[in-house]
Design brief:
Blueprint lengths: L1 E6 L15 H18 L3 E4 L12 H11 L4 E4 L2 E2 L5 H14 L6 E4 L6 H4 L7 H17 L3 E3 L7 E4 L13 E4 L4 H10 L2 E4 L6 H17 L10 E9 L3 H14 L9 H7 L3 E3 L1 H9 L1 H5 L4 E5 L7 H26 L11 H10 L23 H6 L7
Parallel strand pairs: 1-2, 1-12, 2-3, 4-5, 5-8, 8-9, 9-10, 10-11, 10-12
Antiparallel strand pairs: 6-7
Length: 395
């Protein structure tokens, strides 16, 4: 099972000192965090994408392209890439380039984001969020799997004889997650294509997360990708730890009480009871997150948010060390001890996907004209129509 961290890249005042980092400092701290996570032995580092203050990660591929050069083993990902307000042509180019640069040590998560004003900033209408996500992703897949694309849709200018460059590494596109906290249409989209589904449940009760993941699993099996329990699932989470549980509560409380995402809402006691936020000792984190399997089944990726709310860089690096040294080894052992043999431990790596494509005789780009894609066996012409039809299935 993969364990890692994700960042939203917020610039937040430290309530204990009154100090606010500038954008440059915050970006550089994120680079330090990614490098430290790799050195500590975590599996994944993921960055969000935002285009407004108080967030700084407006260019995930720029950041991850740098990080791939200063790390050795960690998988680089996004949390999320905005499929609705980015041009699919640019996404195809930028993430294929990152895939080549990282030698396949990357994947990405598609999402609609959580900032409404971003839509008009990029010339889109938030009321078209779901149709944009469906159409843009259908086009992105074609750009990755077909050498030459002729295409016409609703939300961008047509393409005639277009080839996206560079081509995906070894002719196999990156693995894609679809992230959503409340939209079953996105879970349906992930299931239809046989992609991963990531539920960032940091602000939601587990009852909601369980419902969303169960729906995705059911639809995965319906679309012929295998038994429901083999679907590729990831969860978000957030923790703050100290060796002594009370010290963790005392230290984190001012950050919780004053951070914009928490402040003036439920108490920290209520929030930790109702959501996966866990403040306490490493053992308490182990106990809480080992129980996630009881709600969603065996899953493949767990990411933690540890660098938000104005926490100092030194504190964040200490959190990473506690995760990597005391929490992850135990969680990994416990999760794998009960995982059925037929259920994947990890999301598919690039090497595994290349091997599967070669075994199926589908490595390299597909071509226009009804050629089946690398995963689903469905024709490219069916993509938008069938994904849109997911709304008919109880959505």
């Amino acid at each position: 099972m993969q364990f890692g961290i994700f960042t939203v890249g917020d610039v937040t005042t430290d309530p204990t000192t009154g100090r606010t980092p500038d954008d440059t400092e915050r970006v550089r701290s994120m680079l330090t965090i990614a490098k430290h996570a790799d050195e500590a032995g975590l599996d994944v580092f993921a960055t969000g994408e935002h285009h407004n203050p108080p967030f700084v990660p407006s260019s995930p591929t720029t950041m991850l392209g740098y990080v791939t050069g200063v790390t050795k083993n960690i998988v680089l990902s996004t949390s999320t890439t905005l499929i609705t307000t980015n041009d699919p042509v640019r996404l195809a180019e930028e993430y294929a380039m990152l895939q080549v640069i990282s030698d396949g040590r990357m994947d990405l998560m598609m999402g609609r984001g959580n900032t409404g004003p971003v839509y008009p900033w990029f010339g889109q209408d938030i009321r078209q969020g779901i149709p944009l996500a469906i159409e843009n992703y259908a086009l992105l897949r074609r750009l990755w799997t077909e050498d030459v694309v002729d295409w016409e849709g609703k939300f961008r200018t047509p393409l005639q004889g277009f080839t996206s460059t560079p081509r995906p590494l070894d002719g196999v596109p990156p693995f894609v997650w679809h992230g959503s906290i409340r939209s079953p249409e996105i879970a349906e989209q992930a299931a239809y294509y046989g992609d991963g589904f990531f539920h960032n449940n940091i602000f939601w009760p587990m009852s909601h997360t369980k419902q969303m993941v169960q729906f995705y699993r059911q639809r995965w099996e319906h679309h012929g990708h295998g038994p429901a329990d083999t679907a590729i699932v990831g969860l978000g989470g957030q923790v703050f730890m100290r060796k002594d549980s009370q010290k963790a509560w005392d230290e984190f409380r001012p950050y919780f009480d004053n951070a914009p995402v928490y402040g003036h809402g439920p108490s920290m006691e209520d929030f930790t009871r109702e959501t996966p936020l866990t403040v306490g000792s490493p053992q308490q984190v182990i106990d809480r997150y080992a129980a996630m399997r009881d709600h969603v089944g065996d899953y493949q990726r767990q990411l933690f948010l540890v660098d938000h709310a104005g926490l100092p860089l030194k504190t964040v690096l200490e959190q990473i060390d506690l995760l990597a040294g005391e929490v992850v080894p135990v969680l990994r052992k416990e999760m794998e001890a009960v995982r059925p043999a037929h259920v994947p431990s990890n999301p598919p790596s690039h090497a595994e996907r290349v091997a599967a494509a070669r075994a199926a005789g589908t490595e390299g780009a597909a071509h226009v004209g009804g050629t089946e894609d690398l995963w689903t066996g469905r024709t490219a012409e069916d993509d938008t129509r069938t994904a849109t039809a997911g709304a008919a299935f109880g959505l």
